[in-house]
Amino acid sequence: MEKKKIAVVFGTRPEAIKMAPVIHELKKHSHFFEPLVVVTAQHREMLDQVLDVFDLVPDYDMNIMKRNQSLSDVTAEVLKGIEAIFEREKPNMVLVHGDTTTSFAAALAAFYQQIPIGHVEAGLRTYDKYSPFPEEVNRQLIDNVTDLFFVPTDETKQNLLSEHKTEAHISVTGNTVIDAVHYTKNTQRRHEVLSLMESGPDQRWLLLTMHRRESYGLPMKNVFEAVIELMDGYSDVEVIMPVHLSPTVQSLANDILGHHERVHLVEPLEVDIFHRVMAQSFIVLTDSGGLQEEAPALDVPVLVLREKTERPEGVKAGTLKVVGTDKHDVVTSLKELLENEEAYFNMATAINPYGDGQASKRIINQIKQYFN
Ligand code: UD1
Ligand code: UDP
Predict the structure, then answer these.
(1) Which of the four, 188, 207, 256, 289, has the lowest number of CB atoms within 10 Å?
(2) 187 within a domain of the structure (yes/no)
(3) Predicted confidence (pLDDT) per residue in 239-283, tens digit
(4) Number of domains the chain is built from
């Protein structure tokens, strides 16, 4: 069989983390596949951190990031720029991930050139078009042009079946983020945040991240104020927040959280360090998608700072609790976990529903079968 050229396209930090294990696996099958790594660089610094940890060098780097970029900026730049790359390289398949604007625009460009599309982490849904925004609509649009669906769980498969997608085109693989967690376990690098945590072994460390567009403004302000309110009653609690580079997040976090001695605002962490920080945290507080999948694998309870989640498996398993962004609700949920040992134990010991770290292998096997 002639080698198949597989273009793997991504642009943001979480896509890179979740596609890196797929690229590693493609490279192991070099007699079948020629991987072509295309980064849009919708993110710049946060993407480069991941490329570095996973030792990846892109074949194409579109370098599109602008400060405070609008969704139209990203969509237009990716759509137009990637057209030329696909025309030149003529990939046999394009792989995109999840629900970012990079993934949506790349899938649309592949569709226009009638190139088969594989969607990694397909099928997640809230069925609320503004939550998360614009990701819910991005992933629905991507799934309308997808040929091969790689879904993390049976629940996600059901979403696609209810949308009348063809069952034979759907594979339940687990989430590749668990593959990534297995990979980062092997690095031993040090970081000052790890030293900080080790310097206070009796402290309880809360890991906070927030970045969603629908959280900008009041929801984020409420959560940050809730954290400050809580701190006064618990002298053994410290907060670590690696602050997303979005200028909106930076400014709110600095204004509200930047002046408390037990709240530590740090730069985005490299993912291997971040996983170790998470593993040593007492509670994760987040509106992130990826963290909702990683924390159950690292036995840390997650309070989800959103009204809805597309990850109901984690809620059912007991690791995730959707608390929203109301100040009082956030404080109450935090206090419960800090004071009620049984509630804490139940969340921390729930089973991880997102896979066994072999998702990338299953994805590559399915792609092989597709070409056979
Ligand atoms: C994007 C994705 C979101 C994903 C998130 C992961 C879309 C619409 N959103 O949101 O689904 O959850 O990434 O983090 O695709 N910035 C930098 N350096 C970086 C990264 C970002 O300076 O390395 C700043 C830039 O000013 C940029 C802003 O952050 O304009 C926002 O980045 P953008 O990619 O537009 O949106 P995110 O909120 O990061
Ligand atoms: N992450 C990281 N460094 C950080 C914060 C997060 O490497 O300082 C990783 C985290 O392990 C997860 C991913 O980034 O795999 C989540 O990215 P983000 O929350 O930005 O996006 P989402 O998952 O919500 O799309």
Answers:
(1) 188
(2) no
(3) 999 999 999 999 999 999 999 999 999 999 999 999 999 999 999
(4) 2
- Is 51 a pocket residue for ligand 2 (Cβ < 6 Å)? no
CA of 243 to the centre of ligand 1 (A): 12
Asked if 158 and 27 sit in the same domain, the reply is: yes
Residue 202 CB partners (closer than 8 Å, separation 6+): 236
> In whole angstroms, how far apart are CA 189 and each of 47, 185, 214, 243?
19, 10, 34, 21
Instruction: Looking at the structure, tell me whether residues 198 and 283 fall in a common domain.
Output: yes
Ligand 2 center from residue 337 Cα (angstroms): 23
Cα–Cα distances (Å) from 346 to 318, 321, 356, 363, in that order, read 7, 12, 21, 32
35's CB contacts (< 8 A; 6+ apart) are: 5, 6, 8, 23, 26, 27
122, 151 Cβ separation under 8 angstroms: yes
Instruction: Identify the active-site residue in 213, 229, 262, 299.
Output: 213
pTM above 0.90, yes or no: yes
289 lines ligand 2 (CB under 6 A): yes
Cα of 291 from ligand 2 centre, angstroms: 7
How far is residue 254 CA from its own chain's centroid?
A: 24
CB 211 near ligand 2, within 6 Å: yes
Q: Among this protein's residues, is 213 annotated catalytic?
A: yes
Domain of residue 262: give its range.
192-348
343 and 362 in a single domain? The answer is: no
Range list of β-strands (E), the chain: 4-10, 33-39, 60-61, 93-97, 117-120, 148-151, 170-172, 204-209, 237-242, 263-266, 283-286, 302-304, 320-322
pLDDT of residue 2: 87
